[in-house]
Amino acid sequence: MRLTALCLVGALLAALLRRTGGEMALLLALAVCGAAVMLLAQPLEELKGFWEEAASWGQLPVQLPVQLFVPLVKTVGIALLCRTGSDLCRDAGESAIGSVLETAGAVAAIVVSLPLFRSAWELLRSLV
């Protein structure tokens, strides 16, 4: 609820600031994004605790869940950052830069996911 309220108030203020000059609206949008990330810190800690607990349920080696979840978390983080960054670029009137950022994010997400692809490949090879 707090995050939604923060974003709605930020969007309304940014719309008002755009009428007088877009520079301050962009700075406000950046500030709102930073505050939103800070509000997400506690839920992310809860998620991390759940993953550690889930790893102990299966009595798996500690390294295995880390090998599986770290690339997943990195990929999601890259997607969120690139989406937010590209939207900010578009708000600033630079849609081409936003598109390049989205493409770079897709490439980075694939690179970060390579350990998962390798693990899946090794599993398939071991079945043959």
List keywords for this structure.
single chain
Task: Compile the SSE list and pairings.
Layout: H1 2-20, H2 22-39, H3 41-57, H4 63-91, H5 95-127
Helix pairs in contact: 1-2, 4-5
As a percent range, the share of strand residues is under 5%
Supply the number of helical segments. Answer: 5
Radius of gyration over C-alpha positions, nearest whole angstrom = 19 Å
Structural class: mainly alpha
| Subunit arrangement of the protein | single chain
Report the uncertain regions.
none
Shape: flat
Instruction: List how many beta strands DSSP finds.
Output: 0
Explain this structure to me?
The model has no long low-confidence stretch (mean pLDDT 82). This protein has helices at residues 2-20, 22-39, 41-57, 63-91, 95-127. The protein contains 5 helices and no strands. The radius of gyration is 19 Å and the shape is flat. With 128 residues, the chain is mostly helical.
